């Protein structure tokens, strides 16, 4: 171990983990546990906030024990989280009033259409950088208040708190500090992107009392001290998971980009202090803010289903028994056999924003087998990434020379090889691929002086594997054109 230790709590869509890093950015210990995915109705996705907090406490204790350290050995702790998932809890008791509504949930489709009115999905985009979509947490809160008059009355009396998962976790780790950072706030559709404050007008339009909302803080700054198993430890970093991955990949320069392959897939392009309004279906978001410095912004392409598609092959179809088997199965065939799998299970996110879309498998013939299905499922992630990259080029005028990648799927060699081929640029995997937790640790350690500057963080970044494109240009374009034809088949199903 090198120098001081920093902890990172990474609360994701399917699991919670706590990691301990040293000053060199190396992993000292890790503990991780999955939590239950709740599907009450078609299109509805929920989590139990109490179960999540129970997992938080467990993994912190296990990771510290495995490292052979106590909380007092940590210089700081950072928090990163699944972003748009919404929780409402009682301000006095700290008990949630319902299950959390997960970012993948589509129950707010009708409400979003109603809010758009004659203007449509761009009604709040100029102020928030976001289209009106089921993805974001503001409409989820509006839905809860609309569908439970008792909740609305309690909210108007100031008895309730709303937060994305970072707020819920920090509240519980600090004994009641109600905050969110600028990155998570920028995903609610309730924050003015430039002023970095809640918009009274948008809150009024959605019928959300501002007393529900947390204080907005910087991504790298001390916000409180921990209690219980983190007693006295500074909580000094908060970042939404994709922003944390950008931070962990040290993409601090304008024009640098990363792609995270997890439950969904999320590409962020650092645009510096410039707020670029997307005309190509991307999101404009806060990348991070360090202390009192100017915020840094990003363009983001959000893809709803990537890693969760492999879980679907495992759990729903039984094609594989563990997720890692998908590569072996996909390698039993030479190519996709002209089979394309568009996983629009929750509609399509960037760059389409079509909540009416649903998943399709096209191109099936008697020649197709389960190997082709597996290969088409893997390739779907790469094609969707290409769509986002094309949109970023259009919006920013920047041409990427490489793409830094992270997340669990980057160890799938077939996927990474195909990703480089279909993009036509090198794909680079870092030595520490779980950069979401690392980014949270960096933000916290930077605030507490463990690292003195961004250059110190850049010095920690080490390349592990580089994938160089080898596909001929005409083949690349042919495959991508066929993918686009497949995507068009998903529209207008709902």
Descriptive account of the structure:
The protein is globular, with a radius of gyration of 21 Å. 34% of the residues lie in helices and 23% in strands. It starts with a strand and ends in a 6-residue tail after the last helix. The protein is an alpha+beta fold and 494 residues long. The protein has 16 helices and 23 strands. The mean pLDDT is 93. It has a 7-stranded mixed sheet with strand order 17-18-16-15-21-22-23. Strands 3-2-1-5-14-13 form a 6-stranded mixed sheet, with helices on both faces.
Ordered list of secondary-structure elements with their pairings:
Layout: E1 5-11, E2 15-21, E3 27-34, E4 46-47, H1 49-67, E5 74-81, E6 86-90, E7 100-101, H2 109-116, H3 125-128, H4 137-147, H5 149-156, E8 160-164, H6 165-174, E9 179-181, H7 182-185, E10 191-192, E11 197-198, H8 200-206, E12 215-217, E13 220-225, E14 234-240, H9 241-248, E15 257-261, E16 265-272, E17 283-288, E18 296-303, H10 307-317, H11 325-330, E19 340-342, E20 360-362, H12 370-396, E21 403-406, H13 413-423, E22 427-430, H14 435-447, H15 454-460, E23 463-467, H16 473-488
Parallel strand pairs: 1-5, 5-14, 9-12, 15-21, 21-22
Antiparallel strand pairs: 1-2, 2-3, 4-7, 6-8, 10-11, 13-14, 15-16, 16-18, 17-18, 19-20, 22-23
């Amino acid at each position: 171990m090198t120098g001081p230790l920093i902890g990172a709590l990474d609360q994701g869509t399917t699991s919670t983990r706590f990691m301990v890093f040293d000053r060199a950015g190396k992993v000292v210990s890790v503990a991780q546990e999955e939590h239950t995915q709740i599907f009450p109705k078609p299109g509805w996705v929920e989590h139990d906030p109490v179960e999540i907090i129970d997992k938080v406490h467990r993994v912190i204790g296990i990771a510290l024990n495995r490292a052979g350290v106590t909380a007092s050995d940590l210089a700081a702790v950072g928090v990163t989280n699944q972003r748009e998932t919404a929780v409402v809890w009682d301000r006095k008791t700290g008990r949630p009033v319902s299950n959390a509504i997960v970012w993948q949930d589509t129950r707010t489709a009708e409400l979003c259409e109603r809010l758009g009115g004659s203007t449509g999905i761009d009604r709040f985009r100029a102020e928030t950088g976001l289209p009106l979509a089921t993805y974001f947490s503001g409409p989820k809160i509006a839905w809860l208040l609309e569908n439970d008059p008792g909740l609305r009355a309690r909210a108007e009396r100031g008895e309730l708190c709303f937060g994305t998962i970072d707020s819920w976790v920090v509240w519980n780790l600090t004994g009641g500090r109600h905050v969110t950072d600028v990155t998570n706030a920028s995903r609610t559709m309730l924050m003015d992107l430039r002023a970095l404050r809640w918009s009274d007008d948008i809150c009024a339009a959605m019928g959300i009392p501002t007393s529900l909302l947390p204080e907005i803080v910087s991504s790298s700054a001390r916000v409180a001290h921990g209690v219980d198993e983190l007693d006295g430890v500074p909580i000094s970093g908060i970042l939404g998971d994709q922003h944390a991955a950008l931070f962990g990949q040290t993409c601090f320069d304008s024009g640098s980009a990363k792609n995270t392959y997890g439950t969904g897939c999320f590409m962020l392009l650092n645009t510096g202090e410039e707020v670029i309004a997307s005309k190509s279906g991307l999101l404009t978001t806060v990348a991070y803010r360090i202390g009192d410095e100017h915020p840094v912004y990003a363009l983001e392409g959000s893809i709803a289903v990537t890693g969760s598609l492999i879980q679907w092959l495992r759990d729903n179809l039984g094609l594989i028994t563990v997720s890692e088997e998908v590569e072996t199965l996909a390698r039993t065939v030479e190519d996709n056999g002209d089979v394309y799998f568009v996983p629009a299970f929750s509609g399509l996110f960037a760059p389409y924003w079509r909540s009416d879309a649903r998943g399709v498998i096209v191109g099936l013939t008697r020649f197709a087998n389960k190997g082709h299905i597996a290969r088409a499922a893997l390739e779907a992630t790469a094609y969707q990434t290409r769509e986002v990259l094309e949109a970023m080029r259009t919006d920013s005028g920047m041409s990427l020379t490489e793409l830094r990648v992270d997340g669990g799927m980057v160890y799938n060699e077939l996927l990474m090889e195909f990703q480089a081929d279909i993009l036509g640029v090198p794909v680079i995997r870092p030595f520490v691929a779980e950069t979401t937790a690392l980014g949270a640790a960096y933000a916290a350690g930077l605030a507490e002086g463990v690292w003195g500057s961004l250059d110190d963080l850049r010095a920690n970044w080490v390349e592990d594997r580089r994938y160089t494109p080898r596909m001929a240009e005409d083949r690349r374009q042919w495959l991508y054109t066929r993918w686009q034809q497949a995507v068009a088949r998903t529209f207008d199903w709902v």
